Amino acid sequence: MGIAVLTMKASIIEVLVVLLVTGIYSTNILTKKVKRPKFTVPRINCDVKAGKIINPEFMVKCPAGCQDPKYHVYGTGVYASYSSVCGAAVHSGVLDNSGGKILIRKVAGQSGYKGTYSNGVQSLSLPRWRESFIVSESKPQKGVTYPSTLTYSSSKNPAARADETTKDYEKSSIPATTTWPITLTQGPAIPVAEVTHRVLPKPFPFAATVTSSPRPHPMGLRSQEMGEMDVWKPGPALLDSGFVPKEELSTQSSEPVSQGDPNCKVDLSFLIDGSSSIGKRRFQIQKQFLADVVQALDIGPAGPLMGIVQYGDNPATQFNLKTHMNSQDLKTAIEKITQRGGLSNVGRAISFVTKNFFSKANGNRGGAPNVAVVMVDGWPTDKVEETARVARESGINIFFITIEGAAEKEKQYVLEPNFANKAVCRTNGFYSFNVQSWLSLHKTVQPLVKRVCDTDRLTCSKTCLNSADIGFVIDGSSSVGTGNFRTVLQFVANISKEFEISDTDTRIGAVQYTYEQRLEFGFDKHSTKTDVLSAIKRVGYWSGGTSTGAAIQYALEQLFKKSKPNKRKLMILITDGKSYDDVRIPAIAAHQKGVITYAIGVAWAAQDELEVIATHPARDHSFFVEEFDNLYKSVPRIIQNICTEFNSQPRN
Ligand SMILES: *[C@@H]1O[C@H](CO)[C@@H](O)[C@H](O)[C@H]1NC(C)=O
What we know:
Layout: H1 2-35, E1 57-62, E2 75-76, E3 78-80, H2 85-91, E4 100-110, E5 117-118, E6 121-122, E7 129-137, H3 192-199, H4 203-212, H5 236-241, H6 245-251, E8 267-273, H7 279-297, E9 305-311, E10 315-319, H8 327-335, H9 346-357, E11 370-377, H10 385-393, E12 396-403, H11 419-423, E13 432-435, H12 445-452, E14 468-475, H13 482-497, E15 507-513, E16 517-521, H14 529-537, H15 548-558, E17 568-575, H16 584-592, E18 595-602, H17 607-613, H18 618-621, E19 622-625, H19 635-647
Helix pairs in contact: 7-8, 7-12, 9-10, 13-14, 15-16
The structure holds 2-acetamido-2-deoxy-beta-D-glucopyranose.
Subcellular location: Secreted, Extracellular space, Extracellular matrix
InterPro entries: ECM_Assembly_Org (IPR050525), LCCL (IPR004043), LCCL_sf (IPR036609), VWF_A (IPR002035), vWFA_dom_sf (IPR036465)
Protein name: Vitrin
């Protein structure tokens, strides 16, 4: 019995020990995932931008060396979320160059950020950004729990914690597999049950019938399939718009064919959402919307032309620009479009359109602006930012129509937050529509048509060569001399030649100064390169003193005040001597007004003065040559620096 008791005791202890160990172990797992009793501050690198981090408030640890100018910072005190987190911390004085812990809080976007030089960091100005943040010392506030791991906007597989999913056609941002809608078992590492029941409950069976359908058939209002869709009654969108397919067919042949609205000569590509998750009803509403747009646009060879690309897993051209060249034919063709199904790979579709759609063979006219209107139900399943940038830079104006986008609770599932803002060239709302409900989509028809036809504003595609107002400020003082003045004009012409010049691209203006100043020509005077070059040639040498400060002030008032709001402003000042007046105050005024200033000095020009005039960092914006005959050597470097700077700044 004694032995038996002992053995029992031993095994009880054994069990207790096991329990204890597993208990500790499982608490560990639990606390790591959920409670974090011991808070560790996450580390980030100098280049991490606040916008990449989704958490609204967090503590981070910055490494040393974030003062480096390559980590761009925008704003002062309140920083655009496009800024380096740690760079902003140094700029604001919370951190020095040796790194450390800081506290970040996101705040609303602003309509302007002012760049200043502070604590060894030059921050830049930015007209507008969608989100800001402020930096403070890492004194955690009571009652606030800070995340010990940060959520980055590119984080994968949010559907794995899809408990809070509210919509019945939730999209997950899982990687694309073309076969996914049909063979779910090959899908990503999410339990199939979760995908079918929670993430994509409705569309799945439907997608299967679409993709395996033996013959394509129209799914219009008249379609026999409407019987099986008896849940659906035409919504207000359809009733309002008065779309009556039968009438449309009967009037088709009797009406004269329109040449199209000559006031709206654009080449248009509609990218329509054919993903499974959109469902049959919404797809039908989308088609109705297209038909309404086509009707309002008045398609024709002398007006707008339009083609359609449908995307799902992959995009496909339904018709190109010259397949149907009047509104009637196009509407009939739209009615026959069938849904492709699959994921919502918008980025892939944009890329496809950039490469394939706007070719001459597809009917692109060259002289008409290229416009792509992207329709998105909810949000894309892939990324759009980069592909949209490439599209814009190849000359395509992108509009985004987001219908029933992510609600606050759903934002965590979106692969690329603010995808629409990232895809369009400016975040001023002109290029994007946010439609609350499919049932109110019809209200977007008129505003969209109006904007798409506003060809003056379709200058979306920005490059360093086509997006600036460049003002030359030319020293005409006596010390220059007639011969050298000709060389200076050659130099001005050689720089100008590198740019794309027109009313809507780069514009050139010029001021000459001595003691006095005169406007040689303003930005709106000449709208072709030929005209600009001959105007430069005609500038007559003035001769006199050298008041460079007054000249800068004059250029701000007479040239740059008339610059267009969204244009980059570049001042290129050429001088051969020291100024008689103060340059510092006018130079600061120029910098504060967002005029990027290049100072080119020849012969007797004072280097320190050039550096004061030039935008910071001075080594990129000031140039000195010993002789006028060497001026030509700096042309390529100036162009290169202008483009490097352009490419390092956010587009908006
Ligand atoms: C301007 O370009 C011409 C032709 O390339 C070249 O011969 C000349 O030296 C250049 N002059 C200046 C000042 O850049």
